[in-house]
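#onboarding

Welcome to the new folks! Below is a worked example of what a typical request in this channel looks like: someone posts a single protein sequence, and someone else replies with the predicted structure as tokens. Don't worry about understanding the tokens yet, we'll cover that in week two.

Example request:
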Amino acid sequence: MNNQSKPSKPKAGIIGIGRIGQALAGNFIKSGRSFNATDINTELLNELSGQWGETGKAGDLPTTIRDSDILILSIWFEGIREFLKEHAGKLNGKIIIDPSNPIMINGTGTFKKLIAENESSGEVHKTFMPEGTKIAKVLFPEFCLSLCGSVQNTGKRGPALCQ
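Example response:
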């Protein structure tokens, strides 16, 4: 008999439970993957967490950071820099998933890039992270989230966060 236990999966934490955060939570629930979540809108967070059962756990920001190995920053691009600066001391050894886009819609309805033309948001954010922290940049998060739903429906292997 093999007495070696199976290694546990890294615990995910969702910072921000807006549209992307809610979609992620839904996919985690569908796949049975436990997660932590937090949001500045505690009323919404508490309302949603009542639907998560044992899979999802709502908490405050310090607890979500502490109890998660992977942090998905489902917050606006401009807020990520401040988050990384403020919490850098607590992020060592964690994996940061960044689904943000460094663009905004200006008053004329066109897009404006918030960083220099030759910069990438992942590179910019990495400068605010402590050594030992890894960053993964997610492009087109809505596409990735729909891919997770497709993977779950077919049983095929897909992105790690879908499993």
